[in-house]
Amino acid sequence: MLQVQFIRDNKEEVIKQLQVRNVAASIIEEVISLDEERRALQAQLDNTLAESNKLSKEIGGYFKSGDVEKANELKAQTGTLKETSKTLSEQLNEKSDALTNLLYKIPNIPHPSVPAGNSEDDNEEVLKEGEVPKLAGDALPHWELAKKYDIIDFDLGAKITGAGFPVYKGKGARLQRALIAYFLDKNTAAGYTEYQVPHLVNEASGYGTGQLPDKEGQMYHIGADDLYLIPTAEVPVTNIFRDEIVSENDLPICITGYTPCFRREAGSYGAHVRGLNRLHQFDKVEIVRVEHPDNSYKALDGMVAHIQGILRELKLPYRILRLCGGDLGFTSALTFDFEVYSTAQERWLEISSVSNFETYQANRLKLRFKDENGKSVLAHTLNGSSLALPRVLAGILENYQTPEGIKIPEVLVPYTGFDMIS
RNA sequence: GGAGAAAUGGCAGAGUGGUCGAAUGCGGCAGUCUUGAAAACUGUUGAGGGUCACACCUCCGGGGGUUCGAAUCCCUCUUUCUCCGCCA
């Protein structure tokens, strides 16, 4: 969430910049007035407590010196102070909660380079690269290919669990494993440390990265234990740093991790969710960075370049989009989406999303570092997929299909142990 | 799952219901000494709110309670450790 202090100090600017995301100015006004009320109550409470602390000390003194009468006299005075402080702290809690809840509803301030816009149609294409292969007229979409070569079984997954939980078989399963290993190797070679993290998280972690409270319906919830299945590794990985103060020398912190991801995707249907296009469970390798604020945009560029490198090696046609205000994720200040061209479906598939959250997550997480003056400063957090497996797989199947079978991208052959699915 | 013990500052580890935000050691930082470093010595060193700056307030795993006053007493939750059971 945004920092109240920042909103207070930059009110007009905040209002203006949030208009790109259609946030009403009245909400900001409300934050400011709630904060004022909160601080006024805090001051009153503090004074009341100070008074009663003082009295208690005096009473202690009298008891020590044996002046019980005087002590009891003072004791009588504490009653009303106690009442007052109780009422005040109740009011204060109410205000603080109201303020926090309101702040939870305000999205991150977009970076100045974020274009205005309402939907994905307004995203700005910043780069397009790679050759779209010319396929034979009878080129198949990946779900047909999956069936033809018996490498992914959607019906079987539906039988065991439900729609959106595919079963990978034989070379299909091996290709998945190869991709995970390849991605992790690329990331660790680029300086990211590999982590294995839990796939279920508690409520506090959900709040830490901003999935809660507003995206509650997107996560699977285990009621009996009050845990959530992770929708992305971002949640457990970023929460490693919840309530942490790291040393400035430790920055940047670069972590990569592979996890399955679980998303309810309620309300999704139709042709766009066919095959691997949208799943309830899928695999993803994620990169997460904790950065010094001065360096975070440079780091974002570095992450974009890193993912470009992977896509070039895979020889997949892709493009990079700068998300517009309307399509930008709630917690992000600037996001680049990567899309791979699906030749058989003749459409672009999102395979990565790389974002700088600036201090938005760090403020919720209380993730800070000590600067050179010994002051605690909120760090910047960034993350990106490198990469999401299903759509990369779809892209490979569709773009690498030949009459003889599906060729395996060269860089993956050492990982798969075969160069053709036929 | 059953029985017991514990949770204190970056770490280790004291703490009697009343100047305890907390002894002491280690670590960190600054200084003295040194050509430099080490050692030694001196000082400093938790977080948040609040203020122009002070004052002041809150925090000793989380939440609640007793009390004029709680790190210290009570309840509850969580976590860790030991023993038993089960188990990849």
From TrEMBL:
Annotated ATP binding sites: R263, R264, E265, E350, I351, S352, S353
**One family name in Pfam for this protein:** Seryl_tRNA_N
Recorded GO cellular component terms are: cytoplasm
Protein name (record): Serine--tRNA ligase
Q: Which residues form a coiled coil?
A: 24-58
- Reactions catalysed according to its record: tRNA(Ser) + L-serine + ATP = L-seryl-tRNA(Ser) + AMP + diphosphate + H(+); tRNA(Sec) + L-serine + ATP = L-seryl-tRNA(Sec) + AMP + diphosphate + H(+)
Give residues annotated as binding L-serine.
Answer: T232, R263, E286, N383
- Listed GO MF terms: ATP binding; serine-tRNA ligase activity
Q: Give the originating organism.
A: Galbibacter orientalis DSM 19592
Q: What is the lineage of its organism?
A: Bacteria, Pseudomonadati, Bacteroidota, Flavobacteriia, Flavobacteriales
Compartments reported by the entry: Cytoplasm
